[in-house]
Design goal:
The complex is a heterodimer of chains A (about 675) and B (about 625). Chain A is about 35% helix and about 15% strand. In chain A, α8 packs across α12. With about 625 residues, chain B is an alpha/beta fold. Chain B has three domains: about 1-95, Ubiquitin-like (UB roll) (Roll), CATH 3.10.20; about 110-225, Alpha-Beta Plaits, CATH 3.30.70.20; about 290-350 and about 405-585, Fe-only Hydrogenase (Larger Subunit), Chain L, domain 3. Helices cover about 35% and strands about 15% of the residues of chain B. The termini of chain B are far apart. The chains are: A alpha/beta (about 675), B alpha/beta (about 625). Chains A and B meet through α1, α2, α3, α8 and α9 of A and β4, α3, α6, β8 and β21 of B. β7 of chain A pairs parallel with β21 of chain B, so a sheet runs across the interface.
């Protein structure tokens, strides 16, 4: 545990500078603030609600100059107190740390810091003067002593700017920044911010599960900012005259032809990894078992949510950057990991996905029955149906088991393919369903019959054909020690639901036979690829893995984030032989461990503004079609929605004993 | 009644106090809005109520407040975008609120160009005002380096953008985006370099801006203004060799007296003539004469187009509309009337017919037009509107420049005796010409003449009420009778409605013969070259318009074709409307100026200000 010498946090002053007085044990519960990286102690920490000094020798003037320098660099300049305050305070501290006389007195700095804190428009200005203000109000003597000393010693460390939505996003997209560019009138710049993290912006803008919106502090006022809606708006701008072009010019430095990397799987993880490797200068081949790219985003997401042409146009980015797709190449059938190294690839990324449905484990669950399918197997058929490869017409009733987004996609697709009635069976309550709430509401509007607290017990069949499912009612048990309710069957509540098709949409796993023991890539107890969580390196040297095959069925945005992380690790491994420490990740860990970004209350009342929603087609019309259901929003609506962002930027800084190691930007 | 009660009951009323006085507010009503209803003044700067603009960027309108659960702790908030909360107590004049307001304005001045005396806005600046209102006594933080890097764009013949005077209120962006729907402006830069720029980083001249000048009307400081050309005019007046021929637009006479303390809408036509004569103008004419001439040409052109089945025809007298069509809707150019604007037609006749009649050397003539318009400066510089390598109009002065020029000459309009136009060749005008200055006026003037052409007699009632109104888009059906029959017309003012109409026409969904477009909301009476009102947008448009209709009513001649001097002009010089000679002198053409820009992701990445560049 770090030893606090002095500081202020959440308004509480801590002063243990007098060695003759005993320091209380653990005055503040801080986690992981001893060292930043190995052998590099943290000497001071500055955040949005205070600061701590762990080493008496720290120069406060230099510490706050470093902090304010970053704040001034990030100040957008729209509002007066932040635009001028950050600059004036930074310049005054810069003079003081050089031992020069400053145009401003400490009183002036207090007045400016207070003005910024009290009157700034956004989170950056409101918070970046707070710690300095506390320091000057409570430890002014330290500043005065340093001014008397003159020139201050050079200090090391790093400053990190973030926001709750950024931290919540697996890809760490600079959300307020891309919203700001919309507000500024520059949708292409907005798209540019997103493209720094992944190429599939239009896809993400349609199907992302939006961790950012859950973390959005606008929730404290009215409703989260429509971040996903705005992402789709700027991505769709690509289809207008303002379209941006991708080319090899984006690659800063192309590497020699021998620097080849193989990416297995053209899903979101693989495509994102390939994109970043290409931008690092590598020569990348993507090997894909299917005959087109997209992976689960293509087969797992129906076209009424994500039109195929949108997805395919984003696959083209890889080609435009010089990457190659090798289709109909299935790992375990057409080649092995050994083969890839034999072909001269320096490293391999496995983005295999989880493409095999999990069985329900009920009586008579014979996967060879006509009228039995897994969720993912069914969506693959939907995909072929929409593509015109193999049209199907459903007849009779359909039963889908499961409560996630795959189950939602199955029911909404089944109704579009002519099923008479579509039933959803879920063993818990509606509130417990892991699927997006919007999806559930949309499915209900389209006439899906929902059976909650219901579970299948047996598949009924005749002549090799499914005829129905036996169901049992469930009830919630008392809360367990963790406050969770479980469910149990109600004896004697069995009933039969007749149907011609039953779809088990309860989970997926890596396709059997893709990886064999000979590949040397070990799996964990959940049958997922086992990796080092910081580098995504597998048990085999030079082989990295990410996305669903590593995490189990998860989200598009997690897969794309893994692709970026793996690309960084592969670049380090190929060129340096090891994966470097990544300082930004370390800062994020500090914020997470200490729950620093916890959204509190909106301290100043904020006027509520309605949130823009995508216009949707009438449920009775849309349930007959596979064209995109959500219509685009207008330019005026985009401006309105972008204005709702409160820009909850926060600045965090550590002062360390040694320089923070360099890494990827 | 019962229904009304229900509605009133459904609205939640909040209770609070402002400066100790109990107030009631609607849910989500801002403190500022509520305070104004109760007559409590709070200094503001960036906010502009008339266009519902509260960006919250200047942070001047601070008040001190306490929440009911505030345990005695007070906070500051900007009143413009903070809602009233039940039980809140607000102080607008407490020492803390006042000192925070004062420090804010001091910070605003810290990176604002300090050379007030040379500023186009000197004396009418909202920033100067607010500095006085908050009692600013010192200016400690200013450094020249804070403003040096901010750009001044003087590429356009019409407007100058001096970003060292921008206070980032974003009113210009709001009016361009939401008011006009042109959306030519974007925010650029970061920190102290934050400013307003043109889309795609282009200069004003090359940009998608149509120079309507509505942004100038709302700018609180001198950041936006017209190119000042008063010195050029004064030099010509001083030069005995040069013959200065002035004209002024219909809307100028009704939107000018305010500057000299006369009531809004006062007609100062006679005083303007006196003023121009006093500063030494050689010949003073009325653009209304040009308007009558345009009606003759445009009606003839329209009848010809109707006969050939070509419809609709758009009017072409508004230069910002022409810019808009060329830059944003070039597909629509074939539908535009080829008739030049009244100002340009006047310029051409002043340099051909007038010197012939008056036995003057045309080379010595300088035509000066006083216009309520910034785009007219742009129009005068158009290559299509040069004649033998010389301009038809040598200088356009906006109403603002004209006011400035009179002040330089020590003239107060309010104290002048009116006088009349005295030119025997181009000094007369009809009531139809006068109403050109308001939305629907061009249409009505044209209809009066077309009716005569169709029926061989005048329309009995003279005024076409169905063409008057103030909605953004209006349409009407006029039975011309005779050889023409039913004519379907539409009128729109403001470029947002103009865009709607253009889209309809291009989609083949518009059933109109003749469409009048004026780029500025209200028409020329609130054109972008008019005098600026502080903290207000279009406050006097309707009063100015009413005066124009009165001018029409008081005019002896009310149809362009009955203007005797126009008749003489055709008889002696132009032959007949749309003759070869008239076509040569009074008609023009348009060019496609649509921007096609291809940009790469790399270029965008290089232009990102804050983010985590990866490559």
């Amino acid at each position: 545990m770090s030893h606090i010498v002095y500081g202020v946090w959440n308004g509480a002053v801590h002063d243990y500078r007098d060695p003759s007085k005993p320091t209380p044990e653990n005055p503040v519960a801080l986690h992981g603030l001893d060292v930043f990286n190995e052998g590099n102690p943290i000497r001071a920490f500055v955040g949005d609600r205070g600061f701590f000094v762990f080493d008496k020798g720290v120069s406060l003037i230099d510490t706050f100059w470093r902090y304010m320098d970053k704040a001034a660099e990030q100040s957008c300049g729209k509002c007066t107190p932040c635009r001028m305050g950050t600059v004036l305070v930074r310049d005054a501290l810069a003079d003081m740390r050089q031992g020069n006389s400053s145009a401003l007195t400490l009183d002036d700095i207090v007045a400016l810091a207070r003005q910024m804190t009290d009157t700034s428009l956004c989170g950056l200005g409101m918070t970046c003067g707070k710690a300095l203000l506390e320091a000057l109000e409570n430890f002014r003597g330290e500043f005065e002593a340093e001014i008397k000393e003159g020139k201050q010693p050079e200090q090391e460390g790093m400053v990190y700017v973030t926001a709750p939505c950024i931290e919540a996003c697996p890809s760490k997209i600079n959300v307020p920044q891309y919203i700001d560019y919309i507000r500024d009138g520059k949708p292409s710049h907005s798209l540019g911010v997103i493209l720094q993290k992944y190429p599939m912006a239009a896809t993400c803008g349609r199907v992302c599960v939006r961790f950012c919106e859950m973390a959005c502090r606008r929730n404290l006022v009215d409703e989260a900012v429509g971040i996903k809606t705005l992402k789709r708006y700027v991505a769709d701008y690509q289809t207008t005259t303002g379209a941006l072009t991708f080319s090899k010019a984006m690659i800063a430095q192309s590497l020699p032809p021998s620097m080849r990397v193989a990416v297995v799987g053209a899903g979101p993880a693989g495509v994102s990894c390939a994109y970043h490797l290409l931008l690092h200068g590598y020569h990348v081949d993507i090997l894909e078992a299917m005959d087109q790219g997209g992976g689960m985003a293509s087969i797992g997401i129906p076209s009424y949510r994500l039109p195929k042409d949108v997805l395919l146009s984003e696959m083209d980015i890889i080609t435009q950057l010089g990457g190659r797709f090798l289709f109909n190449q299935k790992l375990g059938r057409d080649y092995s990991v050994d083969d890839l190294f034999a072909r001269g690839y320096r490293a391999v990324f496995l983005g295999l996905g989880c493409q095999e449905g999990t069985k329900m484990g009920v009586m008579n669950e014979d996967t060879s029955l006509t009228g039995y399918d897994s969720g993912i197997g069914f969506l693959l058929k939907v995909h072929d149906h929409v593509a015109g490869v193999k049209p199907i017409k459903l007849e009779g009733d359909v039963v889908v088991v499961g409560g996630g987004n795959v189950a939602m996609d199955c029911v909404r697709s089944a109704i579009r393919m002519g099923a008479r009635t579509v039933h959803l069976i879920y063993r818990r309550t509606r509130d417990d369903m892991p699927a997006d709430k919007e999806e559930i509401t949309a499915a209900e509007a389209e006439g899906i019959v929902m059976h909650f607290l219901t579970n299948p017990t047996e598949i009924l069949s005749a002549d090799g054909k499914v005829t129905g499912v036996k169901l049992v009612h469930m009830r919630q048990t008392e809360k367990d020690t963790r406050g969770r309710r479980n469910v149990e069957p109600i004896p004697g509540s069995e009933r039969v639901l007749n149907c011609s098709l039953v779809i088990a949409a309860i989970g997926q796993q890596i396709q059997s036979g893709a990886l064999t023991e000979k590949d040397g890539v070990s799996l964990n107890k959940w049958k997922c690829v086992d990796v080092n969580k910081t580098s995504l390196a597998t048990s085999r040297e030079g082989v990295f893995a990410g996305g669903d095959c590593e995490t189990g069925p998860a989200t598009l945005i997690h897969a794309m984030a893994a692709g970026l992380k793996a690309a960084r690790a592969i670049d380090d491994w190929v060129r340096r032989g090891y994966v470097r420490f990544f300082p930004r990740s370390r800062m994020r860990q500090i914020l997470r461990d200490n729950n620093v970004l916890a959204s509190d209350v909106a301290e100043i009342p904020v006027k509520s503004e309605y949130r823009v929603h995508h216009p949707e087609l009438d449920p009775n019309i849309r349930k007959q079609m596979f064209e995109e259901v959500e219509r685009p929003i207008s330019r005026e609506e985009a401006y309105h929605e972008a204005k709702r962002c409160m820009r909850c930027y926060r600045v965090y800084s550590v002062v360390t004993a040694e320089p923070v190691p360099e890494s990827h930007n | 009644m019962e229904h009304e009660h229900e509605e009133a009951g459904a609205k939640k009323i909040l209770h609070a106090t402002i400066n100790g006085v109990a107030v009631e507010a609607e849910e989500n009503e801002t403190i500022l809005h509520c305070a104004r209803r109760y007559g409590v003044y709070i200094p503001t700067l960036c906010e502009l109520d008339d266009i519902d603009h509260t960006p919250g960027t200047c942070r001047v309108c601070l008040v001190e407040f306490e929440m009911p659960s505030g345990d005695g702790k007070t906070k500051l908030a900007t009143s413009c975008n903070t809602p009233v909360v039940e039980g809140m107590t607000v102080q607008t004049r407490s020492p803390r609120a006042r000192s925070a307001q004062r420090l804010q304005v001091e910070l605003l001045l810290a990176d604002h160009d300090q050379d007030c005396a040379t500023c186009v806005r000197h004396g009418s600046c909202e920033l100067q005002d607010v500095a006085q209102f908050v009692g600013l006594h010192e200016n400690r933080f200013y450094k020249p380096s804070f403003v040096e890097k901010r750009p001044v764009d003087d590429s356009s013949p019409a407007m100058i953008r001096d970003m060292s005077k921008c206070i980032r209120c974003q009113r210009c962006i709001a009016i361009c985006r939401e008011g006009q729907g042109v959306d030519a402006l974007v925010q650029v830069g970061i920190g102290q370099d934050k400013a307003v720029g043109l889309r795609f980083g282009l200069s004003q001249k090359e940009s998608t801006c149509v120079t309507c000048g509505q942004c100038v009307l709302v700018c609180p400081t001198g950041a936006l203004g017209e190119r000042d050309e008063t010195d050029k005019v004064l030099d010509w007046i001083y030069d005995p060799e040069i013959i200065t021929v002035f004209q002024f637009a219909p809307a100028v006479r009704v939107a000018f007296g305010e500057e000299f303390g006369l009531p809004p809408g006062a007609n100062v036509q006679g005083q303007i003539i006196t003023a121009l004569k006093r500063i030494g103008a050689d010949i003073v004419l009325d653009t209304n004469f040009g308007a009558d001439l345009v009606i003759m040409e445009e009606s003839a052109e329209l009848l010809k187009r109707l006969a050939s089945g070509s419809r609709p025809t758009f009017t072409s007298c508004c230069p910002a509309w022409i810019n808009f069509a060329e830059i944003h809707y070039p597909e629509i150019l074939p539908y535009l009337s080829s008739t030049k604007s009244p100002m340009q037609s006047m310029g051409m006749i002043c340099k051909t017919y007038l010197p012939e009649k008056m036995v003057l050397d045309p080379k010595k003539i300088r035509t000066i037009a006083i216009m309520p318009c910034t785009a007219k400066k742009d129009e005068a510089a158009r290559l299509q509107l040069q004649f033998d390598g010389k301009a038809e109009i040598d200088v356009v002065l906006t109403t603002r420049e004209f006011a400035r020029m009179l002040r330089r000459e020590g003239i107060n309009i309010a104290k002048l005796e009116p006088s009349d136009f005295d030119n025997p060749y181009m000094g007369e005008f009809s009531g139809a010409g006068a109403i050109f200055g308001t939305t629907g006026g061009v249409m009505e003037a044209a209809v009066r003449t077309m009716y005569y052409v169709a029926n061989g007699k005048e329309y009995d009632a003279i005024e076409f009420e169905q063409l008057r109104g103030f909605e953004g888009v209006r349409s009407a059906t006029v039975d011309m009778g005779g050889s023409i029959g039913i004519v379907k017309v539409a009128m729109c003012h403001g470029l947002k409605p103009a865009r709607e109409i253009a889209e309809l026409v291009l989609a083949g969904k518009a059933d109109f013969d003749f469409i009048e477009v004026m780029a500025c909301p209200g028409g020329c009476v609130d054109g972008g070259g008019n005098l600026r009102s502080k903290k207000a947008y279009m406050p006097n448009a309707l009063k100015r318009r009413a005066t124009l209709y009165n001018v029409d009513r008081q005019q002896h001649v009310r149809q362009s074709h009955n203007n005797e001097q126009i008749k003489t002009l055709y008889r002696d010089f132009l032959e007949k409307p749309y003759s070869d000679k008239a076509h040569h002198l009074l008609h023009t053409m348009y060019t496609d100026r649509k921007q096609t820009l291809t940009r790469t992701v790399k270029e965008i990445w290089e232009d990102l200000t804050i983010s985590d560049p990866l490559y």
